[in-house]
Amino acid sequence: MSTDSKQRRDARKKQAERLRNQAAARSEAVSPIEPHAELRDQGRALLAGIVRRDGEWVLGMDGRIAGESSSAAHVLALIMQAAELHERAGTPVRLIYSDALKDAAHAEARQQGLTFEQFKQKLAGELQAKSGH
Length: 133
Fold this sequence. Notes:
By secondary structure, this protein is α+β, with helices and mostly antiparallel strands. The chain has four helices and five strands. The chain has a five-stranded antiparallel β-sheet with strand order 4-3-2-1-5. Helix 2 crosses helix 3 and helix 2 crosses helix 4. It starts with a helix and ends with a helix.
């Protein structure tokens, strides 16, 4: 084997290793986003959604992040309230959400000694008090 071919082979191995390391670093930097809920109108346009990213529940509305929280109950109650507001305004909507989101929200409400329905009502009351209505 010639010295040149060994050097080329070693260079290819080093390059391949460098590329693997760079790919691993990029995949670690990008956290997975898990979709958990979506609110759509009759035309199937997305009005709101909830994803889980880096252990946080992220609520998006109108194409923008509306907020994020470690509280599944909070974000689920908010998207349900958005669905109710659309329905009251005469816009039929469809809300679907994952069992993981529902289970986490209900467990969180139970930890506070509430049913999820009670948690939703409590949050709605707090939001109304903040808005002054």
